[in-house]
Amino acid sequence: MTIKDIAARTGYAVGTVSRALNNHPNVSPKARAAIQQAAAEMGFELNVNAKQLKQTHSNTILMVVKGTRNELFGEMVEKIQQLISETRYQLVVDYMDEDANEAARAIKLCREKKPLGVLFLGGVNENFTEDFRAVDVPCVVATNDASALPLANLSSVTIDDREAGRQAVETLISLGHRRIAIVGGDRRLSDTSRLRYEGCLQAIQAHGLDFDPARDYQGVRYSYRDGYRATKALLAAGREFTALFTCADVMAIGAIRALGDAGKRVPEDVSVLGVDGLPIGEYLVPRLATVVQPAEEMAARSVKILLDGMENGAPCRHERVPFWISCRESVRKR
Asked: Which fold has domain 60-159+295-323?
């Protein structure tokens, strides 16, 4: 007894029968009921070992996390795990280095694990090349805008990173700061870092501030350690700055330690403003001023879009969620 026998009896295609017997979501209730009834009447038993070897898709959702030290992603992973646990799907989480190619990693893992959908936390648009068309399931990239990519199965959820950078620097300028330094990521490898830097430059140029990227910008990895090292490098260059904007809260926390070790007080000598809105920022001394990204909202929207694509065949969509600036104790007026 094979699925071909059930297909002949019910009149449904072999592929439809296979999906119904393997609990694939893309089968109508009517077809599923008819196929399952026929299978029961004919005494059909699914060969589980063969299923595992030959199945088209598993019952899993793959999540590729770009960066092992990104605490914003840690918050989002926790929320996504909670949301997926309330469904019939299993979540497989894969962590990779922040400079590695997430699209290539997903192509490889999709061949191995055959997920029904893929979530990316972090991404770089240029990594999603023609080869990515081999991934034929719905995908969502969170914290990166993929709207410019010609991929019909790739959605995205993010803040407006360029505007976030612009408003952050505008906030520092409104507090009277004119000598501003920036710690961000590698703009060649990170769309997020590039966009936030471009927003910073918009504000700096609009106010005619003196800013030399070679002197006043450090592009490093997203970590406490690199935020510390980058700030030490800025100080060693001899440039006197009264405000520091970092593209992530973890960088800002490292920067505050570096400033303290150099005898600088925050915010009396240097104001520090980060991005992310990590919960730890509320418990630092001083409390960290930050551009707040709504981590749980981005996670929830990403999961909803993915499930809609998986279960209803919904087209891809690209959403921007609002951010806001929390001016806490690490910034002050000049």
From this structure: Rossmann fold (3.40.50)
